[in-house]
């Protein structure tokens, strides 16, 4: 039986660029899965008031969950070996806040 995951679609669109000579990019749409309910995670991070700016809470939650999901899916990848213990400790600290 296949493992059940949550499916998401994220669209990234440029609003403005810092340098006028940078080339503009078309919006990027990414479909991905995550074992956690990302909206529950976002709400939990927002409720902790870690950051003064609520948008930063959302950015942090999405970035962290996407990053850690890639690490989980690639746990045997040598690139992540040194990070895994630190990420585990960081997640414990975050959850205890």
Automatic annotation (TrEMBL):
It holds the Pfam family DUF3861. It comes from the Bacteria. InterPro entries: DUF3861, DUF3861_sf. This is DUF3861 family protein. The lineage of its organism: Bacteria, Pseudomonadati, Bacteroidota, Sphingobacteriia, Sphingobacteriales.
């Amino acid at each position: 039986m296949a493992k059940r995951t949550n499916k998401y679609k994220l669209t990234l669109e440029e609003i403005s660029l810092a340098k006028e000579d940078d080339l503009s990019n078309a919006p990027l749409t990414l479909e991905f899965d995550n074992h956690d309910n990302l909206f529950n995670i976002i709400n939990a991070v927002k409720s902790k008031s870690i950051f003064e700016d609520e948008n930063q809470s959302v950015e942090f939650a999405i970035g962290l969950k996407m990053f850690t999901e890639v690490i989980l899916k690639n746990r045997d990848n040598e690139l992540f070996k040194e990070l895994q213990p630190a990420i585990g400790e960081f997640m414990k600290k975050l959850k205890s806040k």
